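Q: I have two molecules that I believe assemble together. Could you output structure tokens for the complex as a whole instead of separate predictions?
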Amino acid sequence: MKNITKYFVLISMAAFLAGCQKDFLQMPTSSATTLDSVFSTAIKAQGTISNAYRRAIPQGLPFANTWNAMIPENLSGAMNFGFSWTLSRNIILNGMNANSTNTDMDGYNNNFPSIRQCYLVKENIDKVKDMSADEKAVVKAEMQALIAYRYTQMLIMYGGVPIVSKSLDANDEGSLEIPRSSLKNVLDSVVKWTDQSAAVLPSRWANNLIGRMTKSAALAIKAKALLYASRPLFNTATPYLDLGVNNNLVCLGSTNANLWSQAAAAADAVITEAEAAGGLSIINTGNPLDDYGNATSKLNNPEVILAYKFINTSGATDNWGELPMNAFYCSRYWQGQGNVLMTHQLEQYWKADGTNQSWPAVGTTRPFSEYTAKVNQMEARFKASFQPWEMDAWTNPGDANWRNNSTFGSGPGYGVARISKFYYKAGGRRWFEFPIFRLASAYLSAAEAYNEMGQSTKALEKLNKIHVRAGLPPVTETNQAKLRAIIQREWMVEMFNENYRLYDIKHWKLSNIGNGIIGGAARGFAFNDLSNVKLTGNTNYTDREVYQGFWSPSQFLNPFPQTEINKGYLIQNPGY
Amino acid sequence: MFLHAPTVVGAQEKEDSSVVVKEYIQPEKTPGFLLSLSKERSIIPPATVNGQQLFKTPVANITNTLYGKLQGLVVRQRSGEPGYDNASLSIRGRGTYDNSSLVIFVDGFQTTTGYFSYISPNEIESITVLKDPVSLASFGMRGANGVLWVTTKRGGAQKQKVQASVVTGSQQPITLSKPYGSYDYARLYNQAVSNDGYALNGNQFVWKPRFADAELQAFQNGSGTNVDWFNEALRKTGRYTNANVALSGGDPGTKYAIVLDYMKHQGLYNVPTNDKTSNAQIQRFNIRTNLDFSFFKIFEAKIDVGGRIEERRYPNFNGPNLWDNMARYPSLIYPVKDKVSGAWSGTTLYPSNPVASLNALGWASTQDRTLQANFLVKQRLDFITKGLYLSEAVSFNTWTRSRSSKTSTYARYDNGIKTTNDNTTDISANGTTPEDQYDWKQINLTAGYDRTVGRHAFSGAVNYFASAFITDSDNNSQGYNSGNNIFYNFLNIGGRFNYTYNEKYIAEIGFGYSGSDNFSPSKQWVTYPSIGAGWILSKENFMKNSKLFSMLKLRGSAGLSGWDDTNNGRYLYQQYFVSNGSYNTGNNSLSSNAGLILSYTANPAISPEKSFKYDVGFDASLLKGLDISFDLFKDSRSGIITQNNSIMAVFGGILPFVNLGKVVNKGFEISTNYNKKIGALTLSIGGMFSQFSNKIIEQAEVPPVNAYTKTTGLPIGALMGLVADGFYDISDFNSNGSLKAGMPTPSFGAVQPGDLKYKDLDNNGRVDQNDVTKIGSADYPSKTYSINMVLEYKGFDFSAVVQGMAGNDINILSASNLQTVAFVNNTNVFPLAGNAWAYYPSQGIDTRSSANYPRLTLLANDNNYRSSSFWVKKNAFTRVRNMEMGYRFSSSSLKRLKMENLRVFVNAVNPFTWSSLTDQYNIDPETNSGYPGMKSFNTGITLNF
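A: Yes, here they are, computed for all two components at once.
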């Protein structure tokens, strides 16, 4: 009997313990947010939408906390490679290779977190209870447009890439082995996605939501993809380097003249939509410096279709986490002082009277006073973009923040001038909105496309809208080849530092790309008998080779990371 | 002493001449979880050490007494900084590349390393290493990395005993690695600065010294500034003092053991400990009271209380940074005190004058309070069936650390000019702030049965263990379930059953059934079975009369155990969203919209790491007095939690953690012991040797370009890098500075003569990351060995422990960076770089043929200072860990003093080291940089009443 009692006690104790165990081993409540709670209300889901934008939009910009950041113009030959510790230096001097280097700050792999986030929002937004069906449709269209934007950028940098069409499941490894799609497929997808989105997206957003995708922005993505597809690098049967049976990954397989008319139509569609329902316009008040300055610097000016609005909230305290986006573009920061104008880009600018400036030949030393005189003769867009040595910036007259000594700092000692674009009348403001799409680019796209179609009248009409706004006499050239060169020059000038030049040069396949533009002798100004520039008291200047850039045809497109290639599902671009 | 000796009544115990030697004999009962079996019935590889042996190494931290004492326990010395001198412990090599921490149980309850580290050796009865499959299976999900099983001293049913001892000694660094003085610094600086002009001077070595001959002379004859920062900031010796009293005794109903212990350990800083400044020091106050009661025949109770206070004090300057600065700051930068102003010297480049850091910043302290209180009741249920018992135990363990300080700052001067914004301030006291804490509540319920009937001997126990640990330390960033009050809840039902037939055949099974809160409800419970067998051959007829063996036992076991506490974060099965970035919208005033992203992809199937262990071995006693134990073991780990890097980039999410890693670790251990009595001389000498090697079978490595770059298939932590191939010679270059045709181009910046040359393993004409391969073994030994000896002769005794390791390599570039990299970043130059490559015939400098260091430079050099075989050195060493000489006064002479025993002793800790790394580079094989490991010389006295 005693035994039975004992066993009974034991058994009931065990049962009691077993009962407690479930609670005892439960995860404690914490402050973290889980999947279930996120897509329950519009307010909570907002965070995922914001992140989708945050990841998708600043592609290629030094927005992230990357200590050795670069900006694309460091690679395009427009500016020097920056400080010796930047990513760009190695690319300029040694070229890209599959192990570490890439023209995209983010790198290839980082495209996909952005795309995944967009798909997650798109797939889950229907779960939100307090949003109307129309609102949900707009969110989905926004996500679709953001995906299209990333694919457009990838198309330009890599050619055909794997097309992801939903948020993928990590546990289903088979579904992850997505091979590269042909360039044509990627282009068609972008066109399809942007068409779908543009049909749903609003033309304008409420004031507090400006910064989100509009109809004009979706159309601008489409126009950009078609423009680059039409250009010689892709629009050919013979790719820049042979990839055998996989040539369709790096070219379209034939020269399709019809693509140019599609590009022209797409650019026209942007202009039409933007200038009507979008409420945008090219700023032209007759004061070129003010107009171009405002178009590139003023927040939410009428030329901005879509901008990456990034604020350095820490202000002058230089919180590195927020700094790079501003610092590398702004010569008031020492990081920005490493970036200086190089001669090749200088030569693209006209004088204010529309003629070419005569800069001294390589190796010729001229007095510094001549330098000062010549820069003063330059067109408004030069003055809005650069601050020459021993001079206060034209962009911020009388402002102590932009005096000669305020931005001199610790540069490389050579170079044509300091950079000041994006800071027109910005004073002490250290941050700016980076224009992802500016209406001017639609005009230049249309101009380029019409010229390629042989419609010089239409081309000149579009081109001069931009050219004349800059205070220059209208272009009248009708020879297709000559006009092409003028339009290309207009691109480099008007869109300097807006992430066009590097890819434009490659996609135009400019013949001297390896001989003075990206590769070969990189020229800049030296001062004081081939020595460093001084704050004041400079005596002379000389155009000289400051380093030799690397070029090989493989560099037309970026390499895929070797670690990804080694997983066995991707084909590497030729030459890597 | 401050305690009165209790009067001893009754006859003295019979004089035994070998009191000290006895301490070295393995205990009769093998300590362990659930069962404590006799030596004969145990199938556990023996590895136990008792507290007296550990007391022979007078050091502050118990982990530093374990060298060479426990077979299977790899103990590696680290920093000697008072209060932060834990040795690193691991059992039988490395079985996993995830968390390989062993688990420590004190008196049947798990404790933290921090708790264990500062237990006094006087509190300890024994420490056992549990490493066999059966024992570890019964620990379930906490068993995989092995267990350190500690028991504290208990009273016996005997007359009262009092033992008091005091030991004190002075400590010195084992190895103190100092940079060159000003003359050599300046001499070599001239080389470095000239080397850096190579490219600018048309690819020629042109001598352009920074220091003129007159300056060099001034440094040489002592008129120039030449400060030895180590000399200025350090005193010659630190101090260690320990005093303790242990009382024990009792009657059959009540037994007690009480230990009082005080320890003070002072560091090397040359600064007084007073109101305004402080040397590094720790003071420790321990009290332990272990009480045993038995009543009503069936009940036994134990009440154990172990508490202590630890007070640490330091100069108010980060210790590792101070040691860095002493190594980093050149001798010639400034005198300790500025000659013009008389204030502390300092510049913007060298702002933290090491002497001022000690003297002018005040001090900081931490106060730790620890208590472990255990309570156990046991019922002998012999009235139900003979041998049945139940026991119920609880443990409360709590620790808090608070911090307080008195701080000030000082103005820096250089040649009478104030160089920084700092001003000299008066010292001010800062309030006490809490820093960290934990509490740990555990329950142990056991039902056991222990009986021998005829030829059948049976022992078995089943145990229910519940553990709730709560801490503040935020070590959970990956899991995003972090902050204060982090819970770790764990349950285990463990069992062990031993059956012995006819004292010959032994069968044992063990199991664990564990639940951890770290996994999803469907994955949190796992069963861990195990089985073992033993055969005592020497009891068989055919061996009974063996002339060789007095005992020979074969044993073998296999079993599963697990590990629930991954380094990769907690609750990996839970899908989180975490905030990430923000996106601004708006017209004139921008509004920031906070962003949210999916955290790492949840893996609902995540489960604890598994370890399948095998062990076969034998124990033999030879008639001549030699004992031998041998074990072969294998540990196959699977399901090691690893981030799945093999997932394609198109996935786009943060990669999930998966149970995919596999590592195999195997090896053998052999230990011998020889006891002999030759007349009045008693002798015991023992040796241990163990060898182990591991190999990563699977770790989701992204396949590298070349197979030789792969780390899968290599041991964990194998050193990877380029293969160095000597230095570039002048003849390797064209006149324009480019490398001659046919030479592979390195891709780590421009090279010049004297730079390191690397092998282009894939022959593609470029030296880059694709030429990285295995260049050395991991910095973890593959062989450990030790010799323990003790001699006793007519009251004199002598003992020594020698321990060593082999098979490990070290990359001095990372292990001892400041000492290895000369000049770069305004640092110093050490003798290691004294014979650098240089070619200045005009100065009579030409080390091209004899150089053992690349050419010096003042600039960051990505080519030379990167992981390569050039910097990998063998790191085998042998160290005398402890030597002690003692004398025990004969009892007759003590009787008048009412003393039972009086022993005086002198001993040395770490007195001798043989290490090629120390010989060649003056780097200690274990403490590679920072506060050095210590050696010490001590004297002490032990009295027994």
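A: One point stands out. Residues 133-158 of chain A form the longest helix (26 residues).
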